[in-house]
Amino acid sequence: MELDIIKDAFDRISKKQKLSSSKSQEVIDLVGLEVEQALGKIQSAHDLASPVDQKSILTDLKLKLNAIGPLHQLEGSQKELNINLSKYQKLLEKFLNPDISKAYRNVDFDFHIVNQIVAAHFYRQGLFDLGDSLLNEAGEPEATALKSQFLDLHQIIGAARVRNLEPALKWACTNREKLKQNSSNLELKLHRLQFVEILQKGTRTDALNYARAYLTPFASLHMDEIQKLMACLLWAGRLDSSPYHEMTSPTHWDNLTEELTQEFCSLLGQSYVSPLSVAIAAGVEGLPTLLKLANVMSAKKQEWLAMKQLPVPVELGKEFQFHSIFVCPVSRDQGSEENPPMLMPCLHVLCKQSIMKLSKSSTRTFKCPYCPAEVSVAQCRQLYF
C-alpha cells in the first residue's frame, strides 16, 4: 500500500518534470528564434550595403523578449516543479524513514560468534583472504577446518564449471554412504553428465566402457535412467539432433553445481544459504514494523530498551520459516517447554499458563475464549511441535 502511494507520487513528479522541461524548451526556442531573426536583419542590411539602424532592431528585439517574458516563464515552471519535489521528499521521509538506527537497541552480542559467522560467510563466497583478514584483525583464532572445507567446495565447483567432474566424482565416491542416507542421487547425476560428455566428445566405445564401469552399480534402482542413457549410444556424435537432445542442455550443469553445493553443506552440517544473508534479509523485511514500533515507543524510551519481547508480530515470508512455533492467542507468549501449547476438547489451542489462569484452579471449568465450550484442565492435552 505504501509503495503504491510512493509510486503514484513519483509518477506525478515525473509528469511535472516532463511538462516543465517541455515548457522551458519552448521558451528557449522562441527566444532563440527572435534573436536569429534580429541577427538576420542586421546581416541582410550589411550584405546589401544599405544603411541600417541597428539600435532600432535591438530595441524591437528587446520589446519582443519582454513580451515573451522568458525569465518569468522559466521561474514559474521551475517553482511549480520544486514545490512538487519538496512534497515528494516529505512523503519519502514519512514512509521510508532513512534513520533506521531508531530500531536499534543495545543488545549483548557474543562478538566471538559474530566474527565467526561473518568469516564463515566470506568463506562460503570464496573470499578466503577477506575471511582470514577479519579473523586476524579481530584477534580470533583461525577457523582452519571450516576454511579448508569450503576451499574444497570451491575447487570442486570451479572444476565443474569448466566441465571437469573428476573432483566432484571423487568427493561423491568418498561420501557415497552419507549421500545414500540423505536419499541423494547426486553420484548418478554426476556419472550421467560425464557419460553424455564422453558421448559428445569421444567415441561410442569410450562411452560404453564408461557405462559398464560406473553406471552398472545403479542399474538395479535406476533401470529407466540407465536404459535411456544406453539408447543415447545410437546417437553418438549427433546427440544434439537426437530425441535425447535435452540431456545436452547447459541447465543440467547449472543445476548440478547448485545441488552439489547443497549436498556438500548438508554433510558439513551447514545450511545451504549463509546464515548471515538470511539474518540480514529477514531484518530488512521486518525493519518497517520495527521502525513503526520504535516511533510509537519513542516517548517510552526506557521501556523500549528494556523490552524482551515484541508486543506486535513481525510478519516474514515463508522462506524465513524454518520450524513450527506456537504463539498463544491470549497471552501472545511463544510456546516453550515450561509453557507448552495445550489442545482443548473444542480443538482450540492455548498455552498452559493461559489455561491455568482461566481455570483459576485445576478442578474449575472455564469457557473457551473462542467458542461457547466449557473446558476443564484435565481435558486438555499437550501438543508437540
Set out the fold topology.
Layout: H1 2-47, H2 54-68, H3 70-95, H4 111-124, H5 128-137, H6 144-161, H7 166-174, H8 176-181, H9 186-201, H10 204-215, H11 223-231, H12 251-268, H13 275-296, H14 301-306, E1 341-343, E2 349-351, H15 352-359, E3 366-367, E4 374-375, E5 381-382
Antiparallel strand pairs: 1-2, 1-5, 3-4
What does this structure look like?
Keywords: Cytoplasm, Metal-binding, Zinc, Zinc-finger. A zinc finger (RING-Gid-type) spans 328-371. Residues 328-371 form the RING-Gid-type domain. Its main location: cytoplasm. Residues 149-206 form the CTLH domain. The protein is mainly α. It folds into 3 domains: 2-92; 115-268, no CATH class; 324-385, Herpes Virus-1 (2-Layer Sandwich). The chain is built from 15 helices and 5 strands. The protein has helices at 2-47, 54-68, 70-95, 111-124, 128-137, 144-161, 166-174, 176-181, 186-201, 204-215, 223-231, 251-268, 275-296, 301-306, 352-359; strands spanning 341-343, 349-351, 366-367, 374-375, 381-382. A 3-stranded antiparallel beta sheet has the order 2-1-5. A two-stranded antiparallel sheet has the order 3-4. The longest helix has 46 residues, at 2-47. The radius of gyration is 37 Å and the shape is flat. The two termini are 35 Å apart. The model has no long low-confidence stretch (mean pLDDT 85).
Structural class: mainly alpha
The ordered H/E elements are HHHHHHHHHHHHHHEEHEEE
Apparent shape: flat
Distance between the termini: 35 Å
Summed up, the domain count is 3
Largest beta-sheet characterization: 3 strands, antiparallel
List low-confidence stretches. Answer: none
Number of helices: 15
Helix content: 55-70%
Strand content: under 5%
Strand order of the largest sheet: 2-1-5
Output mean pLDDT. 85
Count of beta strands: 5
Gyration radius, rounded:
37 Å
